[in-house]
TrEMBL record, chain A:
The keyword Transport does not apply. Residues 480-646 are annotated as: Disordered. Its main location: nucleus. Residues 356-454 form the BRCT domain. It is found in: Nucleus, Nucleolus; Nucleus, Nucleoplasm. Component of the NOP7 complex, which is required for maturation of the 25S and 5.8S ribosomal RNAs and formation of the 60S ribosome. This is Pescadillo homolog. SUPFAM superfamilies: BRCT domain (SSF52113). It comes from the Eukaryota.
Automatic annotation (TrEMBL), chain B:
Residues 143-154 have a biased composition (Basic and acidic residues). It comes from Leucosporidium creatinivorum. One of its GO terms (cellular component) is PeBoW complex. Component of the NOP7 complex, composed of ERB1, NOP7 and YTM1. Within the NOP7 complex ERB1 appears to interact directly with NOP7 and YTM1. The NOP7 complex also associates with the 66S pre-ribosome. This is Ribosome biogenesis protein ERB1. Its main location: nucleus. InterPro entries: BOP1/Erb1 (IPR028598), BOP1_N_dom (IPR012953), WD40/YVTN_repeat-like_dom_sf (IPR015943), WD40_repeat_dom_sf (IPR036322), WD40_rpt (IPR001680). Residues 1-209 are annotated as: Disordered. WD repeats lie at residues 502-524. GO terms for molecular function: ribonucleoprotein complex binding.
Length: 646, 843
């Protein structure tokens, strides 16, 4: 039965009611387009794409951008909107006063200028702290970019300074809490990924060059974003700093800052103690501590607990890196506990594996020679517990100089002059290129330094953000180097488990199908001399592999059988070969069946199916292309090598 | 009373005679000379011009008394005006006497006067020299100005206090004198003449002698007079000298005559006075016209910061000055109240605005924060994609692009690059250059964040890695065997003539095909041998159909507009042949049709005729009956029993669908009205229902009740073929728009399933009579075989499984497989195509 009385009118419900065009919104808010944009940016209001544009636009198909009506409705009560209106009136008054030459009035007006704050907006947009952490990527990237821009007429110097300070504060926090996880040197810049309170924060830092600023850039938009981000980061940092019991904002040592100390110019201060924590230990402090550590180690050795040495060392180094002088009395600690019931120790909540990886460099001393970009590497190394010294050219505040005997890694990024005598430095140190540091971090292990020596052709630098397992699952291309890493990891796991060997071997065989045997061996040697060759499966059954590849080749099959017999694996080999046989025709038939069955799809499903098959085909194509290219390159290299030898 | 005159001419001559002198001296001297003249009464008529004392002096030729009075005044003036040395414009109150003596117009006297003047002048000069330095030449002029600028009454009072010179008599400024009355003996004020005269101060009251007004002077050119005076007397034209006079005048005049001006009204020359000349000089030089004006006099500050010992104004201070303002009080109180109630927060001087007093950053979040509930309209911005290996500064070599790829990428539009970058391999970190698009990319991200529309995804994104997961789970074709898979027997037609139709006899032994050359060929099904052939006209044969009755081996052929009933009699056994021919020919005897084929029954449509073939040879060949029908035949379909058959012919109006009865040789036209062009018809396999497919619709009629049962809307644009499931509850429809539609007759009038898998038009659809299979043929040259299980259970939907695509027919002239039929017993298919080939498809 039809409802009587309530006739449904057009344009009074649904999309027509839910959406409002931009012009309507501006009219409703009675503000200018510029103010509306500013509000949208600050409040995080964005246009929507209605499912039916025509319905949303009350039958008109004219191009329009739609906003959610309630967003605009809420904007009506926004205090910032009121302030913007006040500011408009103020600007009028001021210009009038100036035009009349009433300087006193103008001064008074200027003093009572309406200023808006956006803290309530921050709280509204990010009701919980975690929400704000989730949205930190863009904020950090933009702040870091502006920190590296020159001040112009459109960008005031004060903003640049503030951005630089915020960037430094963030780095300081990440270093202190050791929350940096991944670093990627891309051609766009350097990607960093940190894990803060369970949220991953990724930001991009440009290389230290003058930025190319396009002429058609609307800086008003960028500056509005910047305004929001500066406030957001201020509040977030306040929370982060106070959570680890530090005073925010950290004080700035002007002299050091002027001398280009970078992050070192910020002075951390623990709250409640009034104690200025040393930004980096002074030389004497360190000496004392080192002596202390050495003594401890000596004692331990004397006692005969050499096994614990490394752990102890790491712990000590960690202490040092934390930079907190252990001077707090018991009372203070109690007070602290009262104030902060949560344990503020950085790594307290982190699992052991993470802890071990974050203190990767804790026992090492790095020296940056003058051609190396200091800010990046200093940040990275210190985030992983290393001690960094640098050339005086790179700024003031280096804790040790080039000839310090403690230096374990000397980071060099200059070409090797053939015939030139190597520079003599006291002590034993490894000379590495900067990529070594980053690769070590991404792999969470210390890699052999030989491949990264100055003048050597570096191994490819892979993105740590790619999940190779998933890529492989989806049929994407996994570069050889990544495969090696994966295999090494897997082998490690197996070593740990030492069980279900047979099943694992099966998997491995599948994985290694495409790999050439010699490569396999080389890899095992190169990457992890301690691990690779531990397994007999790894030692490879070339004939078996070949047979799996080419199941119709009788001789290969035979050879594989022999091989397998030797290992008591006959059954398995046969199975593998049989599977290989089955696979070929089966695949084809399945595809035909699929094609036939696809007749029964509805139009919508068919579209989706076609789209998916298209994209998967493209992916396969891409994978095949890369695969082929890799083989070609390998072939070329193989050709050129003997030539070079001759 | 003051006699008034406006005699400029006489004065002019005098002034001419005057030698130029310092202006300061001149008035004085003139006055003196005037005095003398007065004394002498030398001149009868003198025009006082009101311009200068000389007018009085020399030009006043009024009556004696007047002159005397004037003289008196002048004396006084001299005395009075000495203390105003700064004003030296040589005029005085004498203006008031101007123009008094209007009646004097003696030109001759003027002339003489002019001549006399110089002498007198010289005499006077001496006198003046003798007289002293009390040179207040401008004094009378001052007086004049003052008189003109102030009211006569006020003139005396103001400013006297501060400029009074004690040396002067009290009344030196006064126009009045205090005299002792001769009559009363008391003092009385006696006013100056010119004041009480009434006219004196106003030059507008000056009267000229000539009263003609503003009329052109040439009106009087021929007359002896030049106008009339106030009394109406003629003013006679002054004597003008002849040329000699003029010449003499020019000689006599020291200035060469340029100081004279012509007075048109009086037709006289007026000489400019010394002062007038001086004035003109000053104006020409741009100086102040007043020679005595001193621009550098010290200013007198009446109102200054210096407090005067006595008030400037004698008024007492008003009371309001001592009372507080009520309105100010109100305003102040308003602010005070606002401050008290807290509406206004007063700011300390020098402090910045109140809002900044809040600390810039503080603990915004706490433990008690509650996350906002998820809302469908909340769409957080997607994060930027993380970089892959190809963005590395040192990627694996296989990621590097070839030159072609780079060129292709560079040629792309900016939008198509999608943030991709060309991979570059650097051998060391120091070689990495700045990324030029860095700022731009950040900016675009900002734009995206607030400008890019975000869309709601209703369903979560399907987490399907393999597209095959989308495919419905159907039973494998292997499990649904048997179905035709391979082509076995071929029925090749000569010359590859396009074959339109095919049919298999109910025993499954014979296949009959109809080709476009008008030949019907009979093939042995299992062998492929062409056993017989019949020529049925020249047009293409669109339909061949075996009679479904196994007892009678005959088939109907639709050739252009004739239906042939043919039986392969030579191939049949004698019993069969006899039975068949008897069956077919029984109608001729039972029905009262003659050999000519004229139908007797009135029910039969007029255009339809049943007749026997003429020749015996034809009969022996097996042709049994011929039926003429209107239009061109398109289809023949038999009823299951094998007695009735229906034909469809194209342009035949309501006769396009006919139902023929073979036993009785009767034809009916079931529809009196044609609704759309009929494409196909079909009998229901079990019920007395009849399906008629027009271009877009399918109608189901009940033949017994003669009514429309149902109309189906398959949603097709042009139906090409139709078949009913052997159980009778389902229907498949093929269309030229590449779709196959399955209708469940128990359900709605809309299709149960619409499938689109052929790439070209469908030509034929058919259900297998014994197996759960159906086929569709198409112009794309393929035959699709489907499995179709129809369940007796009403709740279960029919199961349709695609089984096989049979390909083998060639496409010719964009026509593919034109017809296909199922074998009556086996899961076999016989198909014919445009390539002139018939094929048997077996399992």
């Amino acid at each position: 039965m039809a409802r009587t009385g309530a006739l449904k009118k057009k344009g009074e419900s649904g999309a027509a009611k839910n959406y409002i065009t931009r012009n309507q919104a501006i009219k409703k808010l009675q503000c200018t387009l510029g103010d509306f944009r500013r509000l949208c940016i600050l409040k995080g209001i964005y246009p929507r794409e209605p499912r039916n544009r025509k319905k949303a636009n009350k039958g008109s198909s004219a191009p329009a951008s739609f906003y959610y009506s309630k967003d605009i409705q809420y904007l009506l009560h926004e205090p910032v909107l009121g302030k913007l209106r006040e500011h408009k009136a103020f600007a009028k008054k001021l210009s009038k006063a100036i035009g009349r030459g009433e300087w006193g009035l103008a001064k008074n007006l200027e003093e009572t200028k309406p200023v808006y704050r956006i803290d309530h907006i921050i709280k509204e947009r990010y009701p919980t702290f975690t929400d704000s952490l989730r949205d930190l990527d863009d904020a950090l990237s933009l702040i870091v970019l502006f920190a590296s821009l020159p001040a112009t007429t459109s960008i005031p110097a004060s903003i640049i300074t503030n951005c630089a300070r915020l960037a430094a504060q963030w780095q300081l926090y990440v270093m202190r809490t050791k929350s940096l996880r991944k670093v990627f040197l891309s051609i766009k810049g350097i990607y960093f990924q940190a894990e803060v309170q369970g949220q991953t924060v990724t930001w991009l830092v440009p290389y230290m060059f003058t930025q190319n600023i396009p002429s058609d850039l609307d800086f008003r938009i960028m500056l509005t974003f910047l305004e929001l981000y500066q406030t957001l980061l201020g509040f977030v940092f306040f929370k982060l700093y106070t959570d680890i019991n530090l005073v925010y904002p950290p004080k700035l040592d002007d002299i050091l800052d002027e001398n280009g100390a970078g992050i070192g110019a910020l002075l951390l201060e623990e709250s409640g103690k009034g104690l200025v924590v040393v930004r980096d230990e002074t030389e004497e402090d360190k000496e004392k501590k080192r002596v202390y550590a050495k003594d401890v180690r000596k004692q331990i050795r004397e006692i005969g607990l050499g096994d614990n040495d490394a752990a102890e060392k790491a712990a000590v180094a960690e202490d040092e890196a934390m930079g907190v002088a252990p001077t707090a009395t018991a009372d203070d600690a109690a007070l602290e506990l009262d104030v902060f019931p949560v344990d503020t120790e950085a790594g307290a909540l982190q699992p052991e594996s993470v802890l071990s990886s974050t203190s990767l460099f804790s026992s090492y001393f790095f020296y940056l020679s003058r051609e190396v970009t200091r800010p990046t590497l200093e940040f990275v190394i210190r985030s992983f517990g290393g001690q960094v010294g640098w050339d005086a050219v790179l700024g003031a505040g280096s804790p040790f100089d080039e000839n310090d005997a403690r230096i374990t890694h000397h980071i060099v990024d200059r070409p090797v002059v053939p015939g030139a005598a190597p520079r003599q430095h006291p002590g034993k140190r490894a000379y590495v290129q900067p990529q070594w540091v980053v690769d070590c971090i991404n792999r969470k292990t210390l890699l052999p330094t030989d491949d990264y020596a100055p003048g050597r052709t570096l191994p490819p630098h892979l993105s740590p953000f790619v999940d190779e397992d998933e890529v492989r699952e989806r049929g994407g291309y996994v570069p050889l180097e990544a495969k090696r890493i994966m295999d090494v990891d897997m082998a490690e796991q197996e070593d740990d488990e030492d069980s279900d060997e047979d099943d694992d071997e099966d998997e491995e065989e599948d994985d290694e199908e495409e790999e050439e045997v010699d490569e396999d061996k080389k890899m095992a040697k190169n990457v992890r001399p301690t691990v690779g060759l531990g397994k007999k499966g790894k030692k490879a059954a070339p004939a078996l592999l070949a047979a799996a590849k080419d199941p119709k080749n009788e001789s290969l099959l035979h050879a594989a059988e022999l091989e397998a017999e030797a290992r008591d694996e006959t059954k398995k080999a046969k199975k593998a070969a049989a599977e290989g046989k089955d696979k070929g025709p089966k695949k084809i038939s399945r595809s035909q069946e699929e094609q036939l069955a696809s007749i029964m799809l509805t139009g919508k499903q068919k579209k989706l199916y076609n789209k998916m098959t298209y994209s998967s085909d493209r992916k396969k194509e891409e994978t095949a292309k890369l695969e082929k290219r890799r083989k070609d390159i390998a072939k070329q290299k193989a050709k050129s090598l003997p030539n070079a030898g001759l | 009373m003051a006699p008034k005159g406006s005699s400029k001419a006489p004065k002019a001559s005098t002034s001419k005679a005057l030698p130029p002198k310092p202006s300061t001296v001149a008035p004085k001297r003139k006055r003196r000379s005037q005095e003398e003249e007065d004394a002498q009464n030398a001149f009868a008529a003198a025009d006082s011009l009101g311009l200068g004392p000389e007018a009085l002096a020399f030009g006043s030729d009024g009556e004696d008394e007047d002159d005397g009075e004037i003289l008196d005044e002048d004396d006084e003036d001299d005395a009075v005006e000495e203390p105003f040395p700064e004003l030296d414009f040589g005029e005085s109150e004498d203006g008031s006497f101007d123009g008094e003596d209007g009646d004097d117009d003696d030109d001759s006297e003027d002339e003489s006067l002019g001549e006399v003047d110089p002498d007198e002048e010289a005499a006077l000069l001496a006198e003046i020299e003798a007289e002293d330095a009390e040179e207040d030449d401008g004094s009378d002029l001052d007086e004049l100005i003052r008189r003109h600028t102030t009211k006569p009454d006020e003139g005396e009072t103001p400013g006297t206090s501060w400029e009074e010179d004690p040396t002067l008599p009290n009344d030196y400024m006064k126009r009045s004198r205090t005299v002792t009355s001769k009559i009363t003996g008391q003092e009385k004020t006696e006013w100056d003449q010119e004041i009480d005269a009434g006219y004196g101060s106003d030059s507008s009251t000056e009267e000229t002698t000539n009263r003609i007004g503003n009329v052109p002077a040439y009106f009087y050119d021929d007359l002896p007079h030049i106008g009339y005076d106030i009394d109406g007397k003629k003013v006679m034209r002054p004597a003008t000298g002849d040329e000699l006079d003029k010449f003499l005048e020019g000689i006599e005049d020291a200035d060469g005559g340029w100081t004279t001006v012509k007075d048109k009204l009086h037709q006289q020359n007026v000489a400019l006075t010394e002062e007038e000349l001086d004035l003109i000089h000053r104006l020409a030089k741009g100086e102040n016209p007043d020679a005595a004006y001193d621009p550098y006099t010290p200013t007198i500050e009446y109102f200054s910061s210096k407090v005067l010992p006595t008030p400037l104004v004698g008024r007492p201070e008003p009371k309001s000055r001592f009372l507080p303002s009520k309105w100010e009080h109100k305003k102040v109180m308003k602010i005070v109240r606002a401050i008290r109630t807290g509406r206004i927060v007063p700011r300390r001087p020098g402090a910045s605005s109140s809002s900044a007093e809040k600390p810039p950053f503080y603990g915004l979040w706490s433990q008690s924060d509650v996350a906002s509930a998820p809302h469908p309209m909340h769409m957080p911005a997607p994060k930027l994609a993380l970089p892959s290996h190809n963005e590395s500064y040192n990627p694996p070599e296989e990621y590097l692009w070839t030159k072609d790829e780079k060129d292709e990428f560079n040629e792309r539009e900016k939008e198509d690059k999608k943030g991709q970058v060309i991979p570059i391999k650097h051998s060391s970190l120091r070689q990495v250059a700045a990324y030029p698009e860095f700022v731009q990319e950040r900016f675009e991200r900002c734009l995206d964040l607030y400008l890019a529309p975000r869309m709601l995804r209703r369903r979560p994104k399907l987490d399907i890695k393999d597209p095959s997961e989308l495919i419905p789970k159907l039973p494998s074709p292997q499990d649904l065997r048997p179905f035709p898979t391979t082509a076995s027997v071929e029925y090749p037609h000569p010359n590859g003539v396009r074959t339109r139709c095919v049919s298999i006899d109910p025993t499954g032994m014979w296949v009959v095909t109809g080709a476009e050359d008008g030949e019907v060929r009979l093939w042995e099904c299992a062998v492929g041998r062409c056993a017989m052939k019949w020529k049925c006209g020249d047009g293409p044969i669109y339909g061949v159909e075996w009679c479904p009755d196994k007892e009678r081996s005959l088939f109907a052929v639709a050739s252009s507009s004739k239906v042939h009933i043919i039986a392969p009699l030579p191939l049949l056994s004698e019993i069969d042949a006899a039975r068949t021919s008897q069956f077919a020919l029984a109608g001729f005897t039972s029905a009262s049709t003659d050999d000519a084929g004229n139908a007797k029954k009135h029910t039969q449509p007029a255009e339809v005729a049943w007749r026997k073939p003429k020749g015996d040879a034809e009969r022996e060949e097996g042709r049994l009956v011929e039926i003429d029908v209107p239009g061109t035949l398109k289809q023949i379909v038999w009823h299951k029993r094998g007695d009735y058959f229906s034909t469809v012919s194209a342009p035949a109006g309501n006769r396009s669908v006919l139902i023929h009865q073979l036993t009785k040789h009767q034809t009916q036209a079931p529809f009196t009205k044609q609704k759309g062009e009929v494409q196909r018809v079909s009998f229901h396999p079990s019920r007395p229902h009849f399906f008629v497919a027009t271009q877009r619709q399918i109608r189901m009629y009940d033949l017994l009740k003669q009514e429309l049962v149902k109309t189906l809307n398959p949603g097709l644009k042009w139906i090409s073929s139709l078949d009913v499931h052997p159980l009778g509850d389902n229907l498949i429809v093929g269309s030229y728009d590449r779709r196959l539609v399955w209708h469940d007759l128990d359900l709605s009038s809309t299709p149960y399933k619409t499938l689109r898998y052929h790439s070209r038009a469908l030509r034929q659809v058919a259900f297998s009579p014994v197996y759960p299979l159906f086929l569709s043929t198409s112009d794309d040259g393929s035959i699709h075989i489907f499995h179709s299980t129809v369940y007796s259970d009403l709740l279960t939907n029919p199961l349709i499984v695609p089984l096989k695509v049979l390909k083998g027919h060639e496409i010719k002239d964009s026509l593919g497989v034109l017809d296909a039929k199922w074998h009556p017993r086996e899961p076999w298919v016989v198909s014919v195509g445009a390539d002139g080939m018939g094929r048997l498809w077996c399992t």
